[in-house]
Amino acid sequence: MTREELQALLQEFRKDNIDVQKLCSLILSDRGFEDLGHTKVDTSRQDRTGFPEVVYCKNKTDEELLQISGELYRRNGYVLLTRAGPEQAHVLQEQFTDAVFHERAGLITVGKGMEQRGLVSVLTGGTSDIPVAEEAAVTAEIFGCHVQRIFDVGVAGIHRLFSHRDQIEKSNVIVAAAGMEGALPSVVGGLFPIPVIGVPTSVGYGTHFGGITPLLTMLNSCAPGVSVVNIDNGFGAGYLASLINRKIEDASP
Length: 253
Prior knowledge:
The protein is an alpha/beta fold and 253 residues long. The protein is 42% helix and 19% strand.
């Protein structure tokens, strides 16, 4: 039961349109999820956390995706689907006229999402890190953040980062995605008084070990103020950035 549905129910009770027993029955019958048989859709997550449930697309059938997305769209007015492919996007676009496939990010959005405010800067070490960065950027956008993308500013040419310093200083949160040795978040953390979310990517050679090397680099950062998500987890970085951005904006006069 959404907040709006509960408020409407209480108004009906105040008007004596329903009695106490009926009111209790309706409230207690709502379990906070909708059982679709194959999936128990968490319909109360937005009321609890401020963000609705997100759909992970891999290994789900088209029918499952349509039913889950339909329920979330009905409840929240928008849906975010991660790790999606072109065929899944086509299925969703046939059902929802406002479905958009963000191909490089591997995301599908249905609806406009939250009103955007604040600023999140999404940086990459190199061009090859852009797909992970785009996953973070689109996630942050649908969850209510203005996002600026500043790509290919890695430590191999650190002067490229410095040229964007004035832009970055305006941010509430910085997301820094990097492969290879993964040094970018440490550098950024040492330059700006802003929370930094490091995203190790599976971009690199040999002893890069599919993202393990940048992950360990970021976890061992000597720059305070750097947090780290899992390898290639742009969604997790975008979600965390949205939480921080919202707190800062809510606290602003």
